[in-house]
Design brief:
The chain has a six-stranded antiparallel sheet with strand order 1-2-4-5-6-3, with helices on one face. The protein is built from three helices and six strands. The chain has one domain: Hotdog Thioesterase (Thiol Ester Dehydrase, Chain A). By secondary structure, it is α+β, with helices and mostly antiparallel strands. The mean pLDDT is about 95.
């Protein structure tokens, strides 16, 4: 697992991913939980000036995918998004949103993760579930 964390940190910080483009910061990585934050700014808002639902979805899937890849052999496999749902419960127009992804099911071929995104006041703004598929690298 330590090797996976180091490999994932290097990929996250390489500046060539959506995570970097959207300003997502990963604050905690473990097999049981991934925590991060994302700015609510010009990269992530829609035309009315509030957080775009697609940005919340991308944030949720990013956290789940990062967590999912901690559970596999990165030399042989990748955990990739298969299905994502997101319920947007509250809007947010400034600051940062905080996300927590936790595994619900870790299988050999699929994983299911639950993700909560909250505003800086701790209010739930989006709840998501992401199913990941484990595919061979090739």
């Amino acid at each position: 697992m330590i090797e996976n964390i180091e490999k994932l940190w290097a990929k996250i910080k390489d500046g060539k991913t959506l995570v970097e483009t959207m300003g997502i910061e990963i604050e905690h990585l473990s097999v049981d939980e991934v925590r991060g934050s994302m700015p609510v700014d010009t990269r992530t808002v829609q035309y009315f000036g509030v957080l775009h639902g697609g940005a919340s979805a991308a944030f949720a899937e990013s956290l789940a995918s990062i967590g999912g890849n901690l559970h596999i052999d990165l030399a042989k496999e990748s955990a990739v998004g298969l299905e994502l749902n997101a319920n947007h419960l509250k809007s947010v127009a400034k600051g940062r949103v905080l996300g927590v992804a936790k595994p619900i099911h870790i299988g050999r071929k699929t994983q299911v993760w639950g993700i909560e995104i909250r505003n800086e006041d701790g209010q739930l703004i989006c709840i998501s579930r992401c199913t990941l598929m484990i595919v061979p690298r090739g």
